Amino acid sequence: MVTELKKGIYWVGGIDWDLRDFHGYLTQRGSTYNAYLIVDEKIVLVDTVKHYLYDEMLSNIRKIIDPEKIDYIVSNHVEMDHSGSLPMIKNIAKKAAIITSPNGEKGLKAHYKEDWDFKVVKTGDSISIGSRNLDFVLCPMVHWPDSMVTYIPEEKLLLPNDAFGQHIASSQRFDDQLGFDVLMEEAAKYYANIVLPFGEQVLKALEILNTLDIDMIAPSHGIIWRKNVPKIVEKYKKWASNETEKKAVIVYDSMWGSTKKMAYSAKDVLEENSISYRMMDLKHCHISDIITEILSAKYIFVGSPTLNNGVLPTVGAFLVYLQGLAPKNRTAIAFGSYGWGGQSVGIIEDVFEKIGFNIPIKGLKYKYIPFEKELGDFKDKISNCLTS
Hints:
Helices cover 35% and strands 22% of the residues. The protein is of the alpha/beta class.
C-alpha cells in the first residue's frame, strides 16, 4: 500500500507480518522494511527492502513511476535488511547511480561483488534533484561503520535508516495512527537491542541533527514520526546518555528453587526501599525483552545456580547478550545457590566487571537451600548496599 509522506515523496516498502526473530531479538509484532521514493526532476529511491519483500516494493514503485526511470538509489546502510533488494532493482533501474558513504561503497562491493556506478558522499555534501536537495550526514557506528542519514531541507524530512526505528508490522504508517504507548515500547526495545552499545556515537549524531529543522522522521523500520518528533528525539538523548530510573531488574534461572528463593528475597528488599522492579525468570522471559527493561533500570540483579562449574545455559546466553550491549552506569549484584563448586556467582561478576558495572557488594551465594537465616543475611547485605 503506497503512502504519500509529503507531496511527491512516497513510502514504497514492504511489511513483514510473520517476522518473529531478528538476530535473536524477539519481534512479536513483526516488522516493516521501509523504502522511500522521491519524484522530482530526478527520481530517487532511498533504501530498499529485505530480499523476500522485493516484489512488494517493486509493485509499490510501479504504482507511481516506471522503475527504469530511477536516477539515484540512496543506500544509507549496507545491512541486508535494507540493501537486500539492491541487486534486483539495479537490474531494472540500470542507469541509477548508488549514493552511499565511503564505508557504504566498500560494504556494498563486499556484499554483492558488483561494479555499480557509486556516488560517494560525506557529511556536508548535498545533491540537487530539482526542487529539492538531498543533504547527507555520516553517522558511523549508529549502528554500522557505513551508516548515514539523508535530509531533505525543503521538506524538513529526515531519512535516518535504522535510527528512530521500531519493529512493528502495521497497515498504518504514521505515529498518530498507532497507540503511542505501543510505539514507544517498541522504540525502546529497538534502541535497547540494537543501538544501545553506541550511545556516544548517537549523542554526536544528535548534536548534528539538532541543527536541522525536522518535522518528520522516516526510519527504515516501523512507523514514521510526524506528531511526536520532539518526544522520540528526547528519548534518544536520554537513552544514549544512559540515564536511568530508580528501578531494578531481577534476572535469574533456578534448578531446584533455591536461586528463585533468593530472587524473591531481593524483590522484598526492593519493595522495602520503594524501588520499582521487574522479576524476569529466564525460563519464561526472552533476553531481548529483559534488555528492554534494563534500558531504564539503575539496578541489575543476576542469579544462577552452579551447573558443571558454570552457570545455567539460559543465564550464560543472557550474559553474552548483556556484555555485547554493555549498558553503562548500572549497579549490579550477582547471586546464586550451589552444591559443591559454587563458581556461578564469580562468573556473573566477571561479566559485570568487563562491562564496567558498579558492584557494591561481593556476589552472594548459599549452599544447597537457603533458609530463614541465610535469606535474612542475604536481605541485610542487599539492603545495606541500597541505602549506603
